[in-house]
């Protein structure tokens, strides 16, 4: 270790930490949801699902969801929200109008 000889065996413990080497992947390439015009806040729209090949007992294998952007940005910029753990998408505000 420091140049001195070791006379007795030494136990050396090595812990291997999972590396985040796999990106999460959605189970489907496209998801289509629908919601009736004028639906109330909290109306269920759809469910998305992804998986991660990393060890699911570590943070690297846990999948969390969030909406990055919404287009169009009107009538309000955040008409929907997603449950970060389940992938369920619901309406946040009233005002969905097709016209």
From TrEMBL:
What GO molecular function annotations does the UniProt record carry, in alphabetical order? beta-catenin binding; cadherin binding; calcium ion binding
| Xref: InterPro entries | Cadherin (IPR039808), Cadherin-like_dom (IPR002126), Cadherin-like_sf (IPR015919), Cadherin_CS (IPR020894)
Q: What keywords sit in the KW lines?
A: Calcium, Cell adhesion, Cell membrane, Glycoprotein, Membrane, Metal-binding, Repeat, Transmembrane
Q: Where in the cell is it found?
A: Cell membrane
Per its UniProt entry, which superkingdom is the organism in?
Eukaryota
Carries keyword Cell membrane? yes
What is this entry's stated membrane topology? Single-pass type I membrane protein
Domain (Cadherin) spans 27-99
Instruction: Say yes or no: keyword Metal-binding present.
Output: yes
**Chief location of this protein within or outside the cell:** membrane
Annotated GO CC locations: adherens junction; catenin complex
GO biological process assignments: adherens junction organization; calcium-dependent cell-cell adhesion via plasma membrane cell adhesion molecules; cell migration; cell morphogenesis; cell-cell adhesion mediated by cadherin; cell-cell junction assembly; homophilic cell adhesion via plasma membrane adhesion molecules
Q: What name goes with this protein?
A: Cadherin-4
* Organism the protein comes from: Muraenolepis orangiensis (Patagonian moray cod)
Q: What broad taxonomic lineage does this protein's source fall under? A: Eukaryota, Metazoa, Chordata, Craniata, Vertebrata
């Amino acid at each position: 270790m420091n140049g001195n000889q070791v006379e007795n065996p030494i136990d050396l413990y090595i812990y291997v930490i999972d590396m985040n080497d796999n990106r999460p992947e959605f189970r489907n390439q496209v998801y289509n949801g629908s919601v009736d015009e004028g639906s109330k806040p909290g109306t269920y729209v759809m469910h998305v699902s992804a998986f991660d090949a990393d060890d699911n007992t570590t943070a690297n294998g846990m999948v969390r969801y969030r909406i990055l952007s919404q287009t169009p940005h009107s009538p309000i910029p955040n008409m929907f929200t997603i449950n970060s753990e389940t992938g369920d998408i619901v309406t946040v505000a009233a005002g969905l109008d097709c016209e």
